Amino acid sequence: MSRRTIWSMLSLVVVLALLLVACRPTPTPTPAKKQLEIFSWWTTGGEAAGLLKLFELYNQKFPDVEIINATVAGGAGFEAKPALKARMLGGDPPDSFQVHMGHELIDTWVTTGYMEPLDDLYKQEGWEAVFPKGVLEIVSHDGHYWSVPVNIHRSNVLWYNKKVFEANGWKPPATFDEFFALAEQMKAKGITPLALGDVGIWASTHLFEVILAGTMGPEKYKGLWTGQTDWNGPEVKKALETMAKMLEYANPDHSALSWDQANDLVIQGKAGMTIMGDWVDADNLAKGFKDSGWAPPPGTKGIFIALSDTFGLPKGAPHREQAIEWLRICGSKAGQEAFNPLKGSICARNDCDPNLFGPYLKTAMDDWAKDAIVPSLAHGAAASESWVTKINDVMTAFVTDKDVAKAQAGLAQACKDAGVCK
Ligand code: GAL
């Protein structure tokens, strides 16, 4: 083949290649996939079941939206809250995040200017008519609404294993004296009286809030958060003494366990009771445990220590439009009726159908309507996050040294530091 022929063949190949490229149909740009990133700490069986149900409802309505489930494990958000703070302060907010109603929402995120008000959404959805007045007040600040409550949880529940109680002829204790008498009987049988899982310490603070309310009653308990009740007074001292005594009856490995692992001890009959919020109902449901009994912990009959999980709209949410639709579902009747029976909570709305709920939750609904409602400390309702952190620090020392005087001085100081006590 002559050099000339080779050159003309090569040129032909080049021309053909160019023609091919030129004739290729121009690719239509694929539209960016719509996304929605939801941040929470709901990772245990019952928690995740509720969350996934909400996602399912969302995707039924918006099948083209990819939901990013941004969870950070750890009960009560003890790992999630610092992770969220890092993201928010770093200018990387999720589209919506779980936040407790009350001080946690208002002090941490609203007064600091991180959230968008949701007044339009409240108006469009008619929420002022379906959320109780007290709930509307707590999600408000400066005349605006700042988040959407998806549920109401109760912190003061004593959970026990009905089979174990029946086999031994035991009854749930109504007073602290009854609690300790029963604890002795359990101990004699080789059963750990109190299951506690306070990894991250919050479950001890939780136990303490329940003991405080059971010791001093609803009015004085509320006064702790407004400066009306003296942290140096005899009731706080008594509550600390009771707590120290209760800790003697807890599983020795409590600081290594989570709340749901503590509940496992009750399910297995290794422990007699656990004092924990009603997300235990969801844990039991997810684990197929049907022999769960419940009662108000000592001294708290007629008191409902309340908290609520809400979702808000951070400024700069990357998928704002999708986030608003998420909030719409969180506040809807359908959303709350689907979520709460799985989550172990009752609706924040007042128009949910009670027949959709299991036996424990039916009693919670009745109690919510008639009990004295007081705010939870461990779950963001009663006090600012910095105050809760100081109380957690006091508890961290107290569960090991059980030094009542030192703990009481620390608690009184924490109230002063919060600017609530003189
Ligand atoms: C609470 C939260 C509940 C539940 C619990 C245990 O703070 O409000 O929804 O998840 O923690 O993780």
Question: What report would you give on this structure?
Answer:
The chain has helices at residues 3-23, 45-61, 80-89, 103-110, 119-125, 133-138, 162-168, 176-188, 202-223, 234-247, 259-267, 279-286, 320-331, 333-343, 359-370, 385-401, 404-417; strands spanning 34-40, 65-71, 96-100, 140-141, 144-145, 148-149, 153-154, 158-161, 192-195, 271-275, 292-295, 303-307, 309-312, 372-375. By secondary structure, it is of the alpha/beta class. It has a five-stranded mixed β-sheet with strand order 2-1-3-13-6, sandwiched between helices. A four-stranded mixed β-sheet has the order 9-10-8-11. The longest helix has 22 residues, at 202-223. The mean pLDDT is 95. The chain binds beta-D-galactopyranose. The site of beta-D-galactopyranose has 12 residues, from loops. Beta-D-galactopyranose (GAL) binds at residues 41-42, 47, 75-77, 153, 277, 279, 307, 309, 379.
Secondary-structure-derived class:
alpha/beta
Question: What is the straight-line distance between the termini?
Answer: 104 Å
Main sheet record = 5 strands, mixed
Low-confidence stretches: none
Report the top-level CATH class of the largest domain: Alpha Beta
CATH topology (level 3) name of the largest domain? D-Maltodextrin-Binding Protein, domain 2
**Total DSSP E strands:** 14
CATH architecture name of the largest domain: 3-Layer(aba) Sandwich
**Content of β-strand:** 5-15%
Strands of the largest sheet, in order across it? 2-1-3-13-6
Mean pLDDT: 95
How much is the radius of gyration in Å?
Answer: 27 Å
Task: Report the principal-axis shape.
Answer: globular
Helix content: 40-55%
Output the number of helix runs. Answer: 17
**Number of domains as seen in the coordinates:** 2
What binds here, in terms of ligands, is:
beta-D-galactopyranose
CATH superfamily of the largest domain: Periplasmic binding protein-like II
